[in-house]
Amino acid sequence: MENQIFELQYAIDTFYFVICGALVMWMAAGFAMLEAGLVRAKNTTEILTKNVALFAIACTMYMVCGYAIMYDGGIFLKGITDFDLGGVLSASAENGFDGDSVYSGASDFFFQVVFVATAMSIVSGAVAERMKLWAFLLFAVVMTGVIYPLEGSWTWGGDDVFTMYNLGDLGFSDFAGSGIVHMAGAAAALAGVLLLGPRKGKYGANGQINAIPGANLPLATLGTFILWMGWFGFNGGSVLKLGDAANAHSVAVVFMNTNAAAAGGAIAALIVARILFGKSDLTMLLNGALAGLVAITAEPSTPTPLLATLFGALGGVLVVFSIVTLDKLKIDDPVGAISVHGVVGLLGLLLVPITNSDSSFSGQIIGALTIFIWVFVASLIVWGILKAVMGVRVTEEEEYEGMDLVDCGMEAYPEFVKS
Length: 419
What we know:
Layout: H1 2-38, H2 44-72, H3 85-92, H4 105-126, H5 133-153, H6 178-196, H7 217-236, H8 245-277, H9 282-297, H10 305-328, H11 337-355, H12 361-389, H13 396-401, H14 403-408
Helix pairs in contact: 1-2, 1-4, 1-7, 2-4, 2-5, 4-5, 4-6, 5-6, 5-12, 6-11, 6-12, 7-8, 7-9, 8-9, 8-10, 9-10, 9-11, 10-11, 11-12
C-alpha cells in the first residue's frame, strides 16, 4: 500500500513538472513574438532565427554540461542512468504523500532546461538590430553551458564541487528566479549592450533621444500574453510538488499571486506613462505586465493577493522610470529587457523578506551582488573575446540594410515594400 501511494505521488508530481515545463517552453514563443513586434520590420527574420536557435543551443548545452555543473558537481552528465526510474523509486519509497517532492529526474532536467533558455532569451532583445548573429549564438553556448549553471549552483544547486558557498545559508531566497534567471539574463545583456553601443540614429548629436518604433505591436501584445500564460508554469512549477493538499493549495496561491502581480504591474505602468507622456503607451503597458511578473517571481507563495498586486505595481512603476533613465544614459535596449528583467529582478529579490521570514535583506543583497557581478563580468569577458576575434557588431551599411537580408537572406514581410 505504501508503495502504491508513493507511485501515485510520483506520477502526479512528475506529470505536473512536465506540464509546467511545457508552459515555460511556450515562453520561448512569447519572447520571439514580443521581440519581433518591437524591432523594425527589416530585422524580424533575424530575431526569430535567434530565438529558435538559442532555445536549441540552450537545450543542448545544458544537457552536455550545464545540468551537471549546476546540480551534480560534475562537468558532464554521467549518462542516461542518472534518470533511471528504478533508482528513484528505490531511493524514495519512504516518501508518502507527506514526504518530500518525488518525480522523475528526466522531468527535473526538462523543467530546468527551459529556465536556461529563458535567461538567454532576455539577452536577445537587448542586443537586437545591430549584433552579428553568429557572435550572439557563440555567446549563447557559453552562457547556457557555463555562466548560468555556475551561478545556479551557488543558489539552487546545493553543495557540490563548484559551490563557493551556498547563498541559502546566508539568508538568500529566490523562489522561481527573479535574480537567478531574470537578473542574470539582464546582466549578460547589459554587458553586451555596453560593448555594442546604441543603434544608429537612436541618439542625436545634441543629446536628443529618437524613438525607433517597433514594426508590429499586435505581435508584441500576443507575445506578452504568451509570456503571462507561460509564467504560471515558471512560478507554479517551482513549488516542486502537487501530490498533497498543502502543496496543491500552495500551487493555487502561486498561480493567483502571479496573475495578480502581472495585473498590478500593467495598471501601474499605464497610469505612470499617461502622467509622464500624456499618452497611454502600449509598450509601457506591456512591459509593466512583464515587470509585475518578474517582481513576484522571487516569492509568489507567501504574499497575500493584495500584496502581490502592490508588488507588481511597484515593478510596473519602476520599469517605466528605468526605461526612461537608461535612454538618458544612452544605453540602447530596443525591448526594455534590462529594465524589466534586471532592475525589476533586483526589486523582486528585495521584496522577499517582507513576507518570507526565512530570508533576510542582507542575504538578498549578497545574493544579488553575487549573481550580477559574476554574470556581468564573465559575460563582459566573453563578449570582449568575441569582439576581438570576430567582431560583434555589423557594419553601418549592414545595419541600415537590415539584419534579415544580411544574416538570413530573406525578409519577414516581403510583400510589404515601398515602391
